[in-house]
Design brief:
single chain; alpha+beta; Endonuclease, Chain A; 8-stranded mixed β-sheet; 7 helices; 8 strands
Length: 221
């Protein structure tokens, strides 16, 4: 009898352990645990996306209701994707939209070239001229898109490419660039305001903004 009961209890314990592991492996319970730890520590970290691209659905929702937007990108391709559609379509009208992109017209051996050099180690098709042309194309895109968004300001920076920041009055998305992966394949931290990580994101952006160069964005008359 005791052996029978021990067998049942053992099976129940094993099933419970497997269920717990499966729940922890799922995304949403992990987000819940992350948010709970964040509340306890005051970091403001709400979610961790394994890949930057996985955050774009939530990002679009945040941008659609944002009162202001700050973007500092290493290339700016995110600006051309669906996540930013609420801004360019005019369905969302923040009071302020500040965008920072690398300066593609800097001399050689700029931080843009150094980022290109790092990426070329794992992507042989990546060259300084390619990255410069992609940044120029995204600057042209923002300039055209600004016709539907009068509050936009665009600046260029020549600073170390350490992270991408997309922030609103409610939340911030931080992607820290590595030397062995594209930004889109890097983890993305989703921080809610108020919190330490949210504050760091804004400080990172404001520092870069203060050391950047204004780019004229022509508006429709």
């Amino acid at each position: 009898m005791n052996t029978f009961l021990l067998g049942i209890l053992s099976s129940l314990a094993t099933s419970a352990l497997l269920l717990a592991l499966s729940l922890l492996h799922a995304a949403r319970p992990l987000w819940w645990l992350t948010a709970a730890c964040s509340w306890f520590t005051g970091t403001g970290l709400h979610r961790v996306y394994r890949r930057q691209a996985s955050a774009e659905k939530t990002m679009r929702q945040d941008l659609a209701r944002a009162q202001w937007v700050k973007v500092m990108a290493g290339r700016g391709n995110i600006l051309t994707r669906d996540a930013f559609a609420p801004l360019w379509s005019g369905t969302s009208s923040p009071a302020s939209v500040q965008i920072l992109l690398p300066d593609p017209d800097t001399s050689h051996d700029s931080w843009l070239d150094r980022r290109s050099h790092n990426v070329a180690h794992f992507d042989p098709g990546f060259t300084p001229d390619l990255l410069r042309s992609q940044v120029r194309a995204n600057i042209d895109y923002v300039t055209q898109a600004a016709h539907a968004q009068p509050a936009i300001r665009l600046r260029r920076y020549n600073l170390p490419h350490t992270c991408r920041v997309i922030a609103t009055d409610k939340a911030a998305y931080l992607t820290f660039y590595s030397d062995n992966a594209h930004g889109r394949n890097s983890p993305c931290l989703y921080a809610r305001a108020p919190g330490l990580l949210y504050t760091i994101a804004l400080q990172q952006f404001d520092t870069a903004w203060a050391n950047s160069t204004e780019t004229t964005v022509t508006q429709n008359p």
